[in-house]
UniProtKB/TrEMBL annotation:
InterPro entries: DciA-like. This is DUF721 domain-containing protein.
Amino acid sequence: MTWQPSTPSPAQREPRPVAASLGRVSERLGLGRPTTLGAVFARWEELVGPDVAAHATPRTLRDGVLTVVVDHPAWASSLRLLAADVLGRVSEAGGEPVGELVVRVAGERPRRGR
């Protein structure tokens, strides 16, 4: 038996907006909606302020968990104290609830279980 490619239906062959495909792909990967991802990553400084943004960078947003990397342990402590405010701003900006903030210090290895 030889491999035969599947033949897409006429509807599948029609061009469609990239946003439609991104939504499906990000959902399959457990990522937030593209609008939420865009709001967090493109507007990060606006959401957290220039002082925090200079030391903290969003890395991932998956299954409602936002992971941020900071450049110093003191900024990790500060960001953890601001977690409720940051999560509220991110959720509001993206229109999708983000329920947890994980803060990592650059260069540290993640703990087991996370």
